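Dear colleagues,

For the upcoming journal club I promised to circulate an example of a predicted protein-ligand complex. I picked one with protoporphyrin IX containing FE because it came up in last month's discussion. The inputs are reproduced below in full, followed by the predicted structure.
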Amino acid sequence: MLWDRFVRLFHWSLALGIALNYWLLEGGEAPHRWLGYALCALVLVRILWGFVGPDNARFRSFVVGPRRVVASLQDFAADYREHSGHSPLAGWMILLLLALVLSLGVTGWMHGLDAFWGEDWVEDLHEILGNALIAAAAVHVLAVLWIQWRYRLPLLRSMLWRGFD
Ligand code: HEM
Ligand code: HEM
């Protein structure tokens, strides 16, 4: 199994929750705030899983330094066929997506604090981070679809219900 049950459940809950919070729920209202915090909690559990979960879910198996990222790009196809987890570039995109969700939780929380009452920049920053998250997720989805098509790898299927060898 490439992705364990928790990673797959985490992935689709996160994607669905973000879409709801961005497009459907009114920014600032209780459902938006609580869903936002729930997504942050989910990300924190994923981070813990990145240290104690199965090999493919562990950060040390997919977060590598810049030199290895560049090397993987030079022979991207071979690299992708050989590894059984996230590719080096995907690893950094994943960290970016997780960090953006947490930073939305922090700026959303700050918005409600007396200390920042009347400060527009907190709200602006929250909105910019929300847009950045959607932009990064769009790049992520396009990359997945492109790699799946270009290298004929069943990435989507492996994140849906089963892995591939
Ligand atoms: C994945 C998580 C989140 C995403 C994608 C997100 C996205 C956004 C976006 C795009 C807006 C601006 C849209 C609008 O004004 O209607 C917004 C507004 C807002 N968000 Fe979030 N948010 C998230 C989490 C949170 C959390 C955890 C809180 C806090 C408790 C929060 C509190 C707010 C508030 C108070 C506003 C309203 C600002 C205003 O008065 O216009 N958000 N959010
Ligand atoms: C807001 C939307 C999305 C976010 C925030 C997001 C985030 C993530 C994250 C954090 C991972 C790493 C999984 C882990 O190890 O925990 C991941 C992997 C993955 N995502 Fe998404 N995702 C989103 C939407 C989508 C969509 C719509 C698709 C379908 C095309 C998709 C397909 C995948 C696939 C196939 C992987 C595994 C990639 C690999 O083999 O390295 N994601 N995504």
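Two points we might discuss: The mean pLDDT is 92. DSSP finds eight helices and no strands in the chain.

See you all on Thursday,
B. R.
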